[in-house]
Write a structure and sequence with these properties.
The chain is mostly loops. The protein has a domain at 31-56. The chain is built from no helices and two strands. The protein has strands at 3-6, 14-16. Strands 1-2 form a two-stranded antiparallel ribbon. A hairpin with a 7-residue loop joins strand 1 (3-6) and strand 2. The chain is globular, with a radius of gyration of 15 Å. The two termini are 26 Å apart.
Length: 65
């Protein structure tokens, strides 16, 4: 599971995930069109809801597959 690293008060949040032995995804990583907050919210300091849309996500295919 990704772990929150920081970014509070900025326009970018940082999460990290360390790949460990046994982690395997034989058909590649799939990215959905948005972030699922599991019934939580992300708001700025004045209470505006964050956009949960992912933009400009790079290719997740391996070796150009």
């Amino acid at each position: 599971m990704p772990i929150y690293q920081g970014g509070s008060g900025s326009n970018a949040l940082l999460f990290r995930y360390t790949i460990e032995a046994g982690d395997w995804d034989g058909d590649g990583i799939k990215i959905s069109s948005g972030i699922n907050t599991s019934n939580s919210t992300i708001k700025d300091e004045v209470g505006n809801h964050a956009s949960l849309t992912l933009n400009n996500v790079g290719s997740m295919s391996r070796n150009g597959d």
